[in-house]
Design a protein that fits this description.
single chain; 245 residues; mainly beta; Porin; eleven-stranded mixed beta barrel; 1 helix; 6% helix; globular
Length: 245
């Protein structure tokens, strides 16, 4: 798995760079998990993403979900997300909405490598997307209706501490390596007209302050297929925190 993620991270963006429009953007993200009773917990998440050169806010994302622990290393979730994204229609710029219902299955794996506790998360997510269709009226963007499409996402993330952690990784510095692939299903005309949507390859360094908090900074290469022949290669600097209560 580690070798595969490294190969995707290093090779995939390089073969497509010459065909894409490159941008430099910033993302801020906070992910939370709140434990409840009887194997249930809450997922809460917020993200803020910028336009090119971090000039304006591109997207605001809010996501919530209800988790259920099938086993100690397996979790299923159902949830809702709201996304507001910057758009331009007939030279009029503004923000348009998207509502999502989502379901996912997470499998967490752990092993020791030379007394370093390595964890790998595999996540399979299905999204039902209700994308607002924006039109320009009187110099403003308004939503004329919603179009429906679905999307499958596969995500893999590895965390490895810098120091030895034979009893489990509880505190200290670490690096992470991850990749996520997005595939459209359903009415492709609603999105880019293609099954492949995007790929996100990410490398970060961070610090685990306690079992309740990790904070990291990293670089993500987000390759997006747009409509027609347009392609976008986002070079993303992300700061993220993970809170477990």
């Amino acid at each position: 798995m580690t070798v595969l993620l490294i190969a995707i991270f290093l090779y995939f963006p390089s073969i497509l760079r010459a065909q894409t429009t490159n941008q430099f953007v910033g993302w801020l993200a906070a992910f939370g998990r709140i434990e409840l009773k009887n194997k249930f917990s809450l997922h809460v998440e917020s993200q803020l993403r910028s336009t090119d050169n971090i000039e304006q806010i591109q997207s605001v994302l809010l996501r919530v979900g209800l988790n259920y622990n099938l086993k100690s290393n397996q979790i299923i979730t159902v949830g809702y997300a709201y996304i507001s994204s910057r758009r331009t229609v007939d030279s009029v710029s503004g923000y348009g909405p998207e509502d999502r219902i989502w379901e996912q299955y997470v499998l967490n794996e752990a092993f020791s490598f030379h007394e370093h506790s390595i964890t790998i998360q595999n996540r399979f997510r299905l999204e039902q997307r209700f994308i607002g269709q924006s039109v320009a009226e009187d110099g403003e963007l308004v939503t004329s209706g919603f179009s429906f499409v679905q999307r499958i996402r596969y995500f893999a993330r590895m965390i490895a501490p810098f120091a030895k952690s034979p009893g489990g990784f509880k505190k200290g510095g670490f690096f992470s390596l991850q990749d996520e692939v997005f595939v459209n299903i359903g009415d492709l005309s609603v999105v880019n007209g293609k099954y492949f949507d995007q790929n996100r390859a990410y490398l970060s360094i961070g610090y685990r302050f306690s079992q309740k908090n990790d904070t990291e900074i990293g670089y993500m290469n987000q390759f997006v297929l747009n409509k027609g022949t347009a392609r976008t290669n986002n070079n993303v600097i992300q700061i993220a925190t993970y809170i477990r209560l």
